[in-house]
Amino acid sequence: MDWIKLTVRTTTEGAEVVCGMFMGLGIDGAMIEDVSDIDVNQRPNGYWDILGDDLRTQYEDDVKVSVYIPEDDRAASTVTRARAALAALRETASDVDLGKLTLETGRQSDEDWAENWKSEYKPFRLGEHFVIKPTWEDYDRQPGDRIIDIDPGMAFGSGTHETTGLCTMLIEKYVRPGQSVCDVGTGTGILAMAAALMGAHPVKASDIDPMAVRVARENVALNGLDGVVEVAEGDLLSVVDEPFDCIVANIIADVIVAMARGAFDHLKPGGLFICSGIATERRAEVESALSRAGFDAPEVHTRGEWVAMAARRPGEARA
Is residue 311 helix, strand or coil? Predict the structure, then answer.
């Protein structure tokens, strides 16, 4: 299948708004290219990253948010709807610096996509002990490393974004063996697998995008975790009934605000809600939503332009 690539030129602040706009159109899997991420992600002491030393010079000043849609009989209508939605953003998000907010279209084949990933995606470290390693790369394991092999395919969530690092840090800090964990909007399944490698069992992962579900299942099996991690297709928490010790959601602020009460209801007493994808200027709004839902004041961490929170449901956690 061939694909049409839609790219919106915006700002770091506007990227979250544009991602939300695409989600509102039913288009998941946004890829953000932001030169500020390059500076943050360059890690010292021999750590690895997706980004080569010369890649920064290839980036433009605009932040680019890109999605892929199938080149089928619905494509023209989808592009028209996207243009209309962008025009409406100027009114509905007038308090946000959205930059140029132009829409560019291009064509890309599955083969081109795969080769682009393979040329740029290298092993890199998340948190203190996790190493995300593409299947086609070699890696010399270091003492204490927890390696996650991954083939991103065309699913969102390669793991390089700052928010994934923040969530991984909180998973390392709080997830304990035997705890149950739900990863909402799992993408390629990185956070679900990280929880499993910390000893969590069972782990439930969900995503509304069937392509992400397929890729996540493949990655879970690749890492020998299919007996621990179950991946299901569905919107947010709609696929789960049971309460969890921990819920993880690396999405966007609007979705976290909307699901705050649902997350509270799906946590055991003393359970923890780890959430990120929150732009710094949305911090107060998310904290307010968590408070209204019943959570204690969250632990807050920032990295670059992004915020992650760990909010606990009151009550005594069960062993």
Answer: strand
For residue 105, report the phi and psi dihedrals to the nearest 5 degrees. -125, 150
Within the chain, strands assigned E span 2-10, 31-33, 63-70, 102-109, 124-126, 130-134, 146-150, 181-184, 203-207, 229-233, 244-250, 267-279, 299-303, 306-312
Residue 207: Cβ within 10 Å count: 31
Measured distance CA(48)–CA(128) in Å, rounded: 13
Please report the domains of the chain, with CATH numbers, ordered by start residue. Answer: 2-120 (3.30.70.260), 124-312 (3.40.50.150)
Residue-wise pLDDT for 99-124, tens only, equals 999 999 988 776 565 555 555 567 77
Q: Is the pTM of this model over 0.85?
A: no
At 259-271, the pLDDT tens digits run: 999 999 999 999 9
